Amino acid sequence: MTPRDRELRVELERALLDFQSEVRPLPGIDSPTRRAALVGQIVESVRRVRYVSVISELKVSPLRSDPANDLFDPIRSAILHQRAGDIDEAFWLVFLSVHFGTNLRTGWRLLRNVYGAAGSGARWDWKRTSENPAEFRRWLAAHETSLSGAGAGHFGNHRKYQSLSATSATGTGAAVETYVRWIGPPKTHETLIAEARSTVGPEPRKMFDHLYRSMEAVASFGRTARFDYLTMIGKLKLAPIEPGSTYMQGATGPLTGARLLFTGSETGSLSRASADTYVIELEGRLRVGMQVMEDSLCNWQKSPDAFKPFRG
Known about the structure:
globular, mainly alpha, 2 domains
């Protein structure tokens, strides 16, 4: 653990105890071991969020943008496209990274195979896909079997129930087509952000909320996917947005974590609205950001008595 992380642990522990004595009880962390486990998860979440900012400043190999190469990474590729001024492709790669996710065993292989058009040498980049999403769906239908066959990649943990189907209302074909429709070519992603700013003003949390709610139009992008997509857009500085709450409506793990923290029981009586309000209050003391609060509560409830790192 770095000196910076040790200092953060001390600050977080103090802030939690102050909140408990001055604002409202936190029976879920009355035990020092549970409090230490929660603090550990918050520190781990801070490090994950910070990591994106770190890699945004580093040199990135062009191989990170090549879906035929094992080094392909959609987030690093998005950084390269952003640096090159291709903002639409940067947004698109973030969308694809969230839709497919990275699998603990197969990494980005499924995304690589789709984005790289099954190794054909072509790419389903933003320009090609947005100009004819119906063509993408036809291509996907023709390649579904090979893309999901033996040795193929898999969706990430957050997307493990997602379908590769080209035709179902909640499959990959529908997700891609409705995402394109949400942006609305010839409008660009930057136009979408500008329109959000014009509608609700420049405050980052209001813009995030506006985009979060409008993104309901994207098939298969529920609460977690929208939250993950928009927070990554903010972390990459593709848009000046940040979440102002944990969006408990539709949440499972974060809600369980909040109930455990504020009632002492995973099934305690605490509405989603109250959980959101309480977490906002607590974040006002911890000052770590809502993505960290959402992530750390979700992971802490999986192992509240001992810190365990979670991936995927």
